[in-house]
């Protein structure tokens, strides 16, 4: 499922096939029907084609020396889909943030057909991110709504021929720990074994994840090893190397390293001095003036600057290379970039230099 030379259906064919279930429109988000059954034979044919061309990254990354690279794409980032061309050889998968679950378990859809077409054009396999539109994960509370949510995701993957799903429920709720586990078990039971299931995990979440029970059900855990300091905190590093390393070490104690994807920030923050009002600065928006004032903080292994009344912290190429080296040293499955829309050619050069081509 994770090969690069995949023979993917054309955009028109994909959208036509999606019409057999529920309509998908970027301009008008719609809810997917959960009663339409998937066409099993069609799905198996597509998966067979994918497996025949698989060559680069193995399931979970256990038997491949090359790190996998997941690139997230947020729907609110207004960038031309053509910018994906620069990352085509750097990404194993793209995970667009197009879908969220409602309290009843149906899906809200903000799919961008231009990005979909670009991903297909450049042969970047798609594992969409599915989040929670309410922030409360109300759909987890009953078996009926969990079943609806699972059916919604299954229908989405089947009709769009995605390679799996990335589950991102934030913030995590400790009170729903058993329900989240039950949901992930139901999801694994519903999807073909070849479909990849990733789950994003938030550090220091108060025991919201039952890792022992989740590990057999998922392909991988995306460790959100960023935002050590962000909105609501005083100024400080976004992802200090020692902090990230400690998070990875902790997670390795409860899940196999070959199932961990290390989160890497492609951005920084700007704080007015003495406040907690941080503003995100994408990597490609860090100006020459900021870079000229920047200094490398040897304690945190991250760039920082003081300009006028503002404090800046950001990840640079050196910091990204260190995170890649950490993932290699710890024998992790790969890295996960938040987000591709923030990157530029320098980032992709760093990926190619330190990891190699993904296709």
From TrEMBL:
Compositional bias (Low complexity): 28-44
Keyword terms of this UniProt record: Hydrolase, Signal
GO molecular function: chitin binding; hydrolase activity
Signal peptide: 1-27
GO BP annotations, alphabetical order: carbohydrate metabolic process
Location of the region described as Disordered in the Swiss-Prot/TrEMBL record: 24-47
Pfam families: Glyco_hydro_18
Span of domain GH18: 67-359
Coiled coil: none
PANTHER family: CHITINASE DOMAIN-CONTAINING PROTEIN 1, CHITINASE DOMAIN-CONTAINING PROTEIN 1 FAMILY MEMBER
Protein name per UniProt: Glycoside hydrolase
